[in-house]
């Protein structure tokens, strides 16, 4: 399977509590809900299209615990993501959880790199990560990510969990780019290994 990451981030790289103020108050974060005013049909079209190729989910423990309180109660007739999240296999790397009540969940308690490498070797289309910034940072450091699907919102917060801190230098190749009607940049990048470098000729 191809490992893809779908991430909602601000222009300064914050990936914390996009959907509601009370969603994640870790470290005193009080600016949650910054995504909501920018939702539109362009956003819906992109996220639904990207989700159409999912065969399994890989979710960080905190993201998983947030999702399991919401998605089992969403009508799949009104939101196809609900059907996928509730019925497809979900894998959760964790050192703290000992059981999972959400159906079709497998807890990964071994070495992260080894566990995810095995998952990527399974037949199928996308192994999708949604949110889970701490997990994504680890996956990028291990060079396990194949594609980044970024929704970059026209918001600068200056505080919160920054997606780009403590990752391996990574080269990217732009595969898709579009601006939504509300100014969200919908971008798909294929991971291309280490970044290329060069030097400008002296004047």
From TrEMBL:
Pfam families: RibD_C (PF01872). One of its GO terms (biological process) is riboflavin biosynthetic process. Residues 2-185 form the Bacterial bifunctional deaminase-reductase C-terminal domain. One of its GO terms (molecular function) is 5-amino-6-(5-phosphoribosylamino)uracil reductase activity. PANTHER family: BIFUNCTIONAL DEAMINASE-REDUCTASE DOMAIN PROTEIN, DIHYDROFOLATE REDUCTASE FAMILY PROTEIN (AFU_ORTHOLOGUE AFUA_8G06820). This is Dihydrofolate reductase. It comes from Nonomuraea soli.
């Amino acid at each position: 399977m191809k490992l893809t990451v779908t991430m909602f981030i601000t222009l300064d790289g914050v990936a914390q509590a996009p959907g509601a103020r009370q969603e994640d108050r870790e470290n005193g974060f009080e600016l949650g809900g910054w995504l909501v005013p920018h939702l539109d049909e362009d956003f819906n079209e992109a996220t639904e299209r990207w989700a159409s190729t999912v065969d399994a989910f890989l979710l960080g423990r905190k993201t998983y615990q947030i999702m399991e309180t919401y998605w089992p109660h969403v009508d799949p007739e009104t939101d196809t993501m609900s059907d996928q999240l509730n019925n497809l296999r979900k894998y959760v790397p964790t050192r703290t959880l000992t059981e999972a009540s959400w159906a079709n969940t497998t807890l990964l308690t071994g070495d992260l790199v080894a566990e995810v490498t095995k998952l990527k070797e399974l037949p199928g289309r996308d192994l999708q990560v949604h949110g889970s910034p701490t997990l994504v940072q680890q996956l990028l450091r291990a060079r396990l990510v194949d594609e980044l699907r970024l929704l970059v919102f026209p918001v600068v917060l200056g505080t919160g969990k920054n997606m780009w801190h403590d990752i391996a230098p990574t080269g990217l190749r732009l595969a898709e780019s579009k601006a939504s009607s509300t100014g969200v940049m919908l971008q798909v990048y294929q991971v291309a290994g280490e970044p290329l470098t060069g030097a400008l000729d002296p004047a």
